């Protein structure tokens, strides 16, 4: 990988162990961070690496250093032109970071963080609180680099992720009803056992590591006009924006977050990180109620726009919700300014839960008019259901589920209500089904297009 900023290229491309600088004074380009106000919930433990009073602004040279140091253990993922380009009216490229070994970009920051520890810190080990991609990334690279890793996960953590972290040799503690409680426990344990606590989006080395994806994007798509990036705690957008703007300041950096947890937008409005309510979302990786202080301090002046998306629109994506957030912004037509431009969207995580994937596929079918639910009241005489199924099968509709209802009906004693879930080819086929039912039965209720109860 090459650094293309001529002014500092020599020093940047050496494997220097970079001392990160703290901004003790505010500069004019970034809004000053504010200490927690009375309305902000106080954290029980203090992480000196993420100090709201002394935020770190990560430097471009840190990213170059990270790229050099981690290159033996991270995949340079492809950035390929998407066949959705004509539909979305732009030259769309997907940066496929879900192809990293553990399925997400989080490996970049985790590996750099681990490699930057002192020998003694490596021997003692690290700890983090995470139920997702950061936990997997840290566990895997800890194993590769022989650094003991402990992960504290909330009780709601998916069993698959717990098992995978264990397979990577991490010690798992399931403590806490939610991730904030797990974090408190992890920080307490860090103090007790002399572990280094690794914040998965705000540790300066994690931000620098994530930025290496930006160097690859510029290398792979030199004529890029805009990058649309999902935002959770802000580590990815901070690193990417820094790497890209340093080499090509004209590139627009657009942050996308879930409307169910828009902590970056809230921080931009308040000019410092504030706590917002985090509701459950398909993009669980983005549900971080407060943007990282270092991430915000690094990213605020580099990000051109932040927008929120409703992720239900993305139900048909096979990458995980968080990983596909940027694409959701384009598909929903919220970025008309990108028409005709060259746009890169990082698909940065592929670890979708199997059950969540199943639900997504079903909802996708419903949105497409291919999964239909209807109720019809018919005669409870022999042949009543036969007649209904014959009508349906004649037009090629397939029944997925069928249920009889007799007891709770108030009308004719010889009638029965039949509830059916059926699969159709498309919306037109669904209309044909509705027409045939209404022409043959007087009492029909038809539900299509995701109106399921
Ligand atoms: C797949 C995926 N995309 C994006 C993000 C957001 O990254 P960050 O928290 O650094 O903003 C995450 C965070 O976990 C993630 O897992």
From TrEMBL:
Q: Where is the Tryptophan synthase beta chain-like PALP domain?
A: 71-349
Listed CDD domains? ACT_ThrD-II-like (cd04886), Thr-dehyd (cd01562)
Its source organism is: Limulus polyphemus
Q: Spell out the Pfam families in the cross-references.
A: PALP
Top-level taxonomy: Eukaryota, Metazoa, Ecdysozoa, Arthropoda, Chelicerata
Query: Which keywords appear in this protein's UniProt record, sorted alphabetically?
Result: Lyase, Pyridoxal phosphate
Locate the compositionally biased regions of type Polar residues: 1-11
**Which superkingdom does the taxonomy of this entry point to?**
Eukaryota
The answer on whether this UniProt entry bears the keyword Iron reads no
Q: Which InterPro entries match?
A: ACT_ThrD-II-like, Ser/Thr_Dehydratase, TrpB-like_PALP, TrpB-like_PALP_sf
What is this protein identified as?
Answer: L-serine deaminase
Q: Which gene encodes it?
A: LOC106463633
Segments of this protein annotated with the region Disordered = 1-48
For activity, the cofactor(s) needed are: pyridoxal 5'-phosphate
